Amino acid sequence: MAIQIILVMEADEQSRSDYIYISSILDLWYDFRVRSDIKISRVFMDGKGNYNKKKIVKKIDRAIKEYRNGDSHVVYCFDTDKFDSNPDDLRVLQEEQKYCDENGYDFVWFCHDIEEVFLGASVSKNKKTDKAKEYIVNNGVNKLDKGDFIAETISKKRSNLVKVLEKYLVKNN
Fold first, then answer.
1. CA-to-CA distance for 131 and 117, rounded, in angstroms?
2. How many C-beta atoms surround the C-beta of residue 42 within 10 A?
3. How many CA atoms lie within 13 A of 124 on its CB side?
4. Which is nearest to 4 in space by CA: 83, 80, 67, 91?
5. Which of 72, 93, 111, 150 could cysteine-pair with 64, CB 3.0–4.6 Å?
6. Which residues contact 6 (CB under 8 A, 6 or more apart)?
7. What is the pLDDT of residue 1?
8. Which residue intervals of 8-86 are DSSP H helices?
9. Which pLDDT does position 35 carry in this prediction?
10. In degrees to the nearest 10, what's the CA dihedral of 46, 91, 115, 48?
11. Alpha carbon distance 9, 41 (integer Å)
12. Which pLDDT value is given to residue 172?
């Protein structure tokens, strides 16, 4: 059966840096670009705090409505920021998770941010796109430890991305 996975990411549509990283895993471990039974739709939040804004919800609803080949699954992707040392970041993370739970959406986290998980270090905002492009050129996905993407609990330089994707996709290796 065909499925659509709607990735809702913090990055802005111009940068697409989050999607650059995530799609590298989709390409390598799930062959999504050559499979006709998987559609990946992208929604860019243009910032962390926009996850529940009307324009984002409308984009998600439109993607679901336009896809008629099978089931749609919404996967929100968030950086945890400094949740472990900043009470405000922890509160925001808990609100994001609650929002996903209440709406039946999957909650993917990257601790502390997506660059830290994929590159091993945080990146300044003005260098995110360049670093993501470098990652692709340098074939960074082949240097990743798959174990870092199946984490059960939030811990530094880890994510639950693959754990969530495996609910819908079968890994090819």
1. 13
2. 18
3. 2
4. 67
5. 72
6. 41, 42, 43, 60, 63, 64, 72, 73, 74, 75
7. 74
8. 17-30, 54-66
9. 82
10. 0
11. 11
12. 63
Strand partners, 47: none
CA 54 from chain centre, in angstroms, equals 20
Instruction: List, run by run, the mean pLDDT of 10-residue segments along the chain (173 residues).
Output: 94 93 92 86 95 97 94 97 96 97 98 96 93 94 93 95 92 61
From the list 164, 115, 128, the residue with the least C-alpha distance to 6 is: 164
Report the SS3 class of residue 97.
Answer: helix
pLDDT of residue 140: 93
Q: Is 18 helix (H, G, I), strand (E, B) or coil?
A: helix
C-alpha atoms less than 13 angstroms from C-alpha of 75 in its C-beta half-sphere: 28
Q: Which two tokens stand for residue 144?
A: 């990743």
Residues in contact with 135: Cβ distance below 8 Å, sequence separation at least 6, in sequence order: 20, 21, 24, 118, 119, 141
Amino acid at 21: Y
